[in-house]
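> call design_seq(struct)
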């Protein structure tokens, strides 16, 4: 593929991946607001956990339904729908005067996150040439971590301007409310840009619009006729995607579907989103003030970006499986060290916990090491695999199921973490995450096959022998 066509496909993939920026921003912005929301609405640990995690129920529903929405309305229109929901959620959560209203609109925003989590990898996988598909698919994760980083910068700036997340002297609203409202700006930009994207050629062929598909393929393929023929042959005789197509001999589902489901679960059970949803409150819990805790969150988000950039640079050279294995090993060690550091925290007469300087530094570096290993492996690679590992006839339905399970696992971890931290302590919580990281290493070795360099039309079982 020549340089001009490469630039075009990169541009299309980058635009689609902007949904990931909103995905990351929406997921992480609550980090800076969570303590202020708890104070303003007088929430206990369980209620606060549900407020944070409620968006993930919406995300699971959004992921579950997006495959059928994308098949009916097309990929770019689905992105516009997600952008509209992002915008509404951003404004109305920020203006919520009751916890019930805030939760409802967090669920709506979560639905948009679920849509973005499915539609971006689906679209990118369907337009990307096999030799650069890993790098283009990783743009989704780069956008997610950039959204996380942006949210932490915005949160830090607003807290410093207002003198605290719960301050009421910033243009008539508390800083935590502005944290949520600001998301409307990138959401509107995403919707406008998505309107300019061409439809996926695979969707066009499935709809019988072969001439339009050839025109789209000509934008980034040296031989659009041959590509069109491959897509037609792959889809020939296939019915519209249905969840019933996922049935198979392994507990009622095809083996490849189970691989996607377990990959999705393990990505969340490592505890990565505890860092991005609760890290400010977590560091406050061991004696760090709010401004410093937010600054630590910004540093962690920057580490996340660095790891993701590394993944983009090497994923199509070293392959998906090697990155997953390296990430699992590194995460297991880093989480175990973090758990040990938190186990040394002391509690004073008032019940306040604190780490001494040495163990605080150990916890800081080991937690960020965990984020780095996740960022170059399980963060981007799972999304790349979910976009490419399923056969064409299963992709939309299987991706929807795997993404929905991922959000449900995220919900379970996010909902239970405040209780775990309060009742069992941070050391036990991080030990559990370390154990799941060790399980992820075994699972990849046993069940995950390499997909590097393979055309989507050639995907078979996708299960390691």
């Amino acid at each position: 593929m020549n340089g001009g066509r490469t630039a075009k496909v990169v541009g299309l993939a980058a635009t689609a991946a902007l949904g990931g920026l909103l995905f990351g921003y929406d997921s992480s912005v609550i980090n800076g607001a969570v303590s202020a929301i708890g104070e303003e609405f007088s929430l206990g640990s369980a209620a606060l956990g549900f407020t944070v995690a409620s968006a993930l129920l919406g995300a699971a529903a959004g992921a579950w339904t997006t495959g059928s929405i994308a098949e009916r309305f097309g990929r770019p229109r689905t992105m516009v729908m997600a952008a509209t929901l992002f915008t509404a959620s951003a404004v109305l959560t920020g203006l919520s005067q009751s916890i019930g209203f805030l939760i409802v609109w967090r669920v709506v925003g979560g639905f948009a996150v679920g849509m973005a989590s499915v539609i971006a990898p689906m679209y990118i996988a369907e337009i990307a040439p096999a030799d650069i598909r890993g790098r283009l698919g990783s743009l989704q994760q780069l956008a997610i971590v950039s959204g996380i980083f942006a949210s932490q910068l915005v949160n830090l700036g607003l807290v410093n301007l207002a003198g605290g997340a719960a301050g009421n002297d910033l243009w008539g609203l508390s800083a935590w409310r502005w944290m949520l409202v600001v998301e409307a700006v990138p959401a509107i930009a995403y919707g406008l840009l998505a309107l300019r994207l061409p439809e996926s050629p695979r969707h066009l062929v499935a709809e019988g619009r072969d001439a339009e598909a050839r025109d789209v393929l000509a934008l980034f393929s040296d031989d659009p006729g041959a590509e069109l023929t491959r897509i037609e042959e792959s889809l020939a005789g296939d019915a519209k995607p249905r969840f019933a197509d996922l049935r198979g001999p392994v507990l009622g589902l095809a083996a490849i579907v189970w691989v996607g489901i377990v990959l999705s679960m393990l990505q969340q059970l490592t505890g990565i989103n505890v860092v991005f949803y609760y890290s400010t409150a977590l560091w406050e819990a061991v004696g760090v003030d709010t401004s410093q805790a937010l600054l630590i969150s910004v540093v962690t988000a920057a580490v996340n970006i660095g790891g993701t950039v590394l993944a983009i640079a090497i994923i199509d050279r070293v392959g998906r499986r090697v990155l997953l294995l390296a990430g699992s090993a590194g995460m297991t060690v880093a989480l175990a060290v973090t758990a040990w550091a938190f186990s040394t925290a002391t509690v004073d007469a008032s019940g306040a916990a604190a780490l001494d300087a040495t163990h605080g530094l150990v916890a800081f570096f080991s937690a960020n090491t965990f984020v780095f290993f996740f960022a170059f492996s399980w963060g981007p690679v799972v999304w790349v695999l979910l976009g490419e590992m399923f056969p064409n006839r299963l992709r939309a339905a299987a991706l929807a199921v795997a993404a929905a399970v991922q959000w449900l696992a995220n919900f379970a971890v996010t909902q239970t973490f405040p209780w775990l931290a309060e009742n069992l302590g941070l050391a036990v919580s991080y030990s559990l995450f370390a154990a799941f990281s060790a399980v992820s290493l075994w699972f990849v070795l046993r069940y995950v096959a390499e997909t590097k360099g393979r055309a989507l039309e050639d995907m078979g079982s996708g299960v390691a022998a």
